[in-house]
Amino acid sequence: MDIRSGIIATIILLALFAVFSFWRGMRTLQSARKMTFYRLRRQREAGGWRLLGLAIILVALAIWLPLFGEPIAYDYFPPSPTPSLTPTVTIVPTITLSPTITLTPTITDTPAVTDTPTITPTPFLPLAMQALFQSSVTPNPGAIFSPLLFSTKLDNSQAVDPTTVFQNPVGHMYAVFSYDQMSPGAQWTALWIRNGEIVHYETKPWDGATGGFGFTDWNPTSDQWLAGKYEVQVFVGLEWKVVGRFLVQGDPPTAVPTITPTATATPSRTRTPTLTVTPSFTPTSSKTPLPTKTSSPTKTSAPSSTPKPSSTPKPSATPSPTRTP
Questions:
Q1: pTM as predicted
Q2: Quick check: 156 and 129 in contact, CB under 8 A?
Q3: Residue 191 contacts by C-beta under 8 Å, 6 or more apart in sequence?
């Protein structure tokens, strides 16, 4: 702790002791009035006045310290750290090295800090959201909102174990706040933004009381909780009221329904009709050519032996009757 910090801490302690001494002295004087014995009452009053005097001395000392205490302390304790800065001047000869000159462009990288103005501009409500307004009630410009608390659990409109860093899978997210001086029926809007892109929103007339606790929530599927920086902006009418930010880390879980397409393999059992190959056994009926053995009746050639009756020439012996002379 340096001298300045020590003096500030001493001033704060003196102020606290002065307040306590003043309060204690007033209580002592009030209690002295109720005492019946004169001597005891005078002693009690003297003690009260001493406490009041001590409070005045402490206040005076607290005023004197910042005006004269710090210069006096530096007279007795000169700041030694300043000579330690001089060795850094000895580093300047290293600038003569050409590589150190190449380091100067790294100093030009400091304009990267100029990215911070992306946060400083006040949020505004997109025209697409303004087109969704339904309320005609004029919002109260004096409405106030507390900082947003982010949690995946809610108990009586209160965030349970709020934090700003969440690990996937996230689930149902709540942005809880307290509010006051709200106009019932006034249009209010909550935008959920991830890396500068709106991923969820809600806008509707205010249906709560003029003061209390409220929340805006988002419950997407698990694969929609992508890792990144998230921001929730709350508007009343067109006026921005509060912004809260949180971080989601880790990849979202893969969608389980992708396994269901494997169930389509069951229709592949329709290959069972390929057993219709059995009708290919119909060639067994082709054995009907067995009856073609009817060629055996071709033996009818045997009747061709009918030439045997050609032996009828025997009756040609009829010339015997020629003895008639």
A1: 0.43
A2: no
A3: 123, 125, 129, 198, 200, 201, 232, 233, 235
